[in-house]
Amino acid sequence: MYFNNFTEKTIQLNNKEERDRIECFLSGHSLRLEAGIEYCVAILDGEEIIASGSFERNVLKCIAVDLRYSGMGIAGKVVSRLVTEEFNRGRDHLFIYTKPENAEKFRELGFYEIARVPAKVVLLENRPDGIAAYIKQLKNCTIQGNEAAGIVVNCNPFTNGHRYLIEKAAAECDVLHIFVVWEDRSVFPAEIRYRLVKEGTKHLGNVVVHKGRDYIISNATFPTYFMKCPDEAVKTQCLLDIKIFAQYIAPVLSIKRRYVGQEPFCQVTAAYNQTMKEILPGYGMEVVELPRMCLNGMAVSASEVRRQLEMGNMRAVKEMVPETTYDFLVSGDALEIIDKIRK
After folding, report:
1. Distances (CA, A) of 215 to 98, 136, 205, 229, 279
2. Nearest CA to 270 among 218, 219, 230?
3. 73 to each of 43, 98, 127, 209, how far by Cα in Å?
């Protein structure tokens, strides 16, 4: 495809030579081609790469244009190509990560700012009412109470450890809002994780379970969460995700406290918890860290449940999960999931 005298090229990410070239171009713009990138397009002037853009799921990123070609509408061409490809894959709610100095350029291309970490990153989306619509949905799904708190869970799957933390938190507030991470990166799909949390907490009358959607620990707000490798990006993405929670979600639900479980294993989650302790008090929110539930001297975790499922040790699994989760795990609906774990 041609526009002006330039050529558009889809980069074959599994081709080492092409991948090396795009990585070299991006490094010159202080960017890196992240591991999860699934599509990348480049603009060439002859054989030279002068611009590129990529996406991972519904997030556009790694967009760069050679300064010699600025003001020629090339960034718009790159974004247009990425948006078309996303739409072809059935995705119409899109996000963009960019440096603060480039935010205005993407606003001109039809994106709307959600939040930013000064001097680091800005997150925008292609819907003017995207986060507002999500907030309205949350507001319609609540119960009355003076002391409201929040807790964010993945629950892959829902364990007695999760229930223990939720029961402790629920006992200390009038209303507890549970947000289930919605990104389908877990072996247990989002709808099933949400269902297991609802079923496992239905005995608690002051609990409301919400779907986290794109605004709570998602590929848009915090992609590094799923990479499990601490690096310089983790702190920035922790800040971004926490700011969205503090600026949009907590106020509409009057959340003044956020509960977390102690995290002795995952460095990324531990860093996230620490960042919450540093940031949320500035928004009038207390962070309460609760000890993990232990069984036979070991913390009960979803990863341990999956390990026991892999070994076929259902007796051990039964000790670590609520009856509602266990009933699901021994049903026909769980066969495909358990088979995936064992493979």
Report:
1. 17, 13, 26, 21, 18
2. 230
3. 12, 17, 22, 45
User: Which phi and psi angles does 52 have, rounded to 5°?
Assistant: -155, 165
| CATH for 2-127 (3.40.630.30, 3.40.605.10, 3.60.21.10, 1.10.630.10) | 3.40.630.30
Question: 168: which 2 tokens?
Answer: 């402790």
Reported as type and span, the H/E element at residue 236 is helix 232-244
pLDDT of 107 > 80? The answer is: yes
The domain locations on the chain are: 2-127, 132-342
CB 113 within 8 A of CB 243: no
Cβ–Cβ < 8 Å for 165, 289: no
Q: Does 157 sit behind a cis peptide bond, omega within 30 degrees of 0 on the bond before it?
A: yes
**Better-scored residue on pLDDT, 282 or 343:** 282
Q: Which amino acid is at 235?
A: K
d(CA 7, CA 42): 8
C-alpha to C-alpha distance for 15 and 171, rounded to whole angstroms: 55
- By DSSP bridging, strand 6-10 and strand 2-3 are antiparallel
Find residue 288's DSSP bridge partners: 259
Give the model's pLDDT for residue 1: 47
Beta bridge partners of 115: 123
With left for phi above 0 and alpha for psi between -120 and 50, is residue 113 left, alpha or beta?
beta
Which class does domain 132-342 fall in? alpha beta
Q: Is residue 205 pLDDT above 70, yes or no?
A: yes
